[in-house]
Amino acid sequence: MNDLNHYIDHTLLKPEATEQDVDRVVKEAIEHHFYSVMINPYWVSHVHSLLTNTNVKTATVIGFPLGANTTNIKIAETDQAIKDGADEVDMVMNIGEFKGGNYKAVQNDIESVVTAAHKQNTLIKVIIETALLTDDEIAKASEIVANAGADFVKTSTGFSTSGAKAHDVAIMKHTVGDRIEVKAAGGIHSAQDAENMINAGATRLGTSASIEIISKN
């Protein structure tokens, strides 16, 4: 597969990332034509300024990495990120409420953030943290995300017990069909990993191993 770069959100979410690290990731994304640069909210304004007049988008995370922020905080984060120049936001669903079976609260939380993003023409993905879910729960969470009006359902933060698995992506894709798209993230380290995720139904990949993936493709 020769166009893997166009699937990739080139990601740097490590808490210890410095401005020099961020600048390096931006430079790599421009050079290799990755889809976006995914960074923590603090860096959005800086990254957006560096990506002006390029085709690379600025993306960030909301309620990250636990999903346990209040809805109002997630909305405020979203509004601030968009104000700072984010083209896309990846929010974490309220995993505890989902595991507790409080699906209405989970959907309301997602819908509120989706509304905030879409009101400003910003694409939104929702991370369900597949490593913490059973197969049935992955399907249920994907259904909730689709019903809430998000643009993507996403596997993982990369900060839990494991990242994306092609098996999980396939469940997500089977559940949402063509209603929304699927993003695989976390633990994608090789071109083979990337292709496995795409073959399972992912249309976007989140990885910090982007250079390695495309260089061995």
UniProtKB/TrEMBL annotation:
<keyword id="KW-0704">Schiff base</keyword>
<dbReference type="InterPro" id="IPR013785">
    <property type="entry name" value="Aldolase_TIM"/>
</dbReference>
<dbReference type="GO" id="GO:0005737">
    <property type="term" value="C:cytoplasm"/>
</dbReference>
<feature type="active site" description="Proton donor/acceptor">
    <location>
        <position position="90"/>
    </location>
</feature>
<comment type="function">
    <text>Catalyzes a reversible aldol reaction between acetaldehyde and D-glyceraldehyde 3-phosphate to generate 2-deoxy-D-ribose 5-phosphate.</text>
</comment>
<dbReference type="GO" id="GO:0006018">
    <property type="term" value="P:2-deoxyribose 1-phosphate catabolic process"/>
</dbReference>
<dbReference type="GO" id="GO:0009264">
    <property type="term" value="P:deoxyribonucleotide catabolic process"/>
</dbReference>
<dbReference type="InterPro" id="IPR002915">
    <property type="entry name" value="DeoC/FbaB/LacD_aldolase"/>
</dbReference>
<dbReference type="InterPro" id="IPR028581">
    <property type="entry name" value="DeoC_typeI"/>
</dbReference>
<dbReference type="Pfam" id="PF01791">
    <property type="entry name" value="DeoC"/>
</dbReference>
<feature type="active site" description="Schiff-base intermediate with acetaldehyde">
    <location>
        <position position="154"/>
    </location>
</feature>
<dbReference type="InterPro" id="IPR011343">
    <property type="entry name" value="DeoC"/>
</dbReference>
<protein>
    <recommendedName>
        <fullName>Deoxyribose-phosphate aldolase</fullName>
        <ecNumber>4.1.2.4</ecNumber>
    </recommendedName>
</protein>
<feature type="active site" description="Proton donor/acceptor">
    <location>
        <position position="183"/>
    </location>
</feature>
<dbReference type="GO" id="GO:0004139">
    <property type="term" value="F:deoxyribose-phosphate aldolase activity"/>
</dbReference>
<keyword id="KW-0963">Cytoplasm</keyword>
<keyword id="KW-0456">Lyase</keyword>
<comment type="pathway">
    <text>Carbohydrate degradation; 2-deoxy-D-ribose 1-phosphate degradation; D-glyceraldehyde 3-phosphate and acetaldehyde from 2-deoxy-alpha-D-ribose 1-phosphate: step 2/2.</text>
</comment>
<dbReference type="GO" id="GO:0016052">
    <property type="term" value="P:carbohydrate catabolic process"/>
</dbReference>
<comment type="similarity">
    <text>Belongs to the DeoC/FbaB aldolase family. DeoC type 1 subfamily.</text>
</comment>
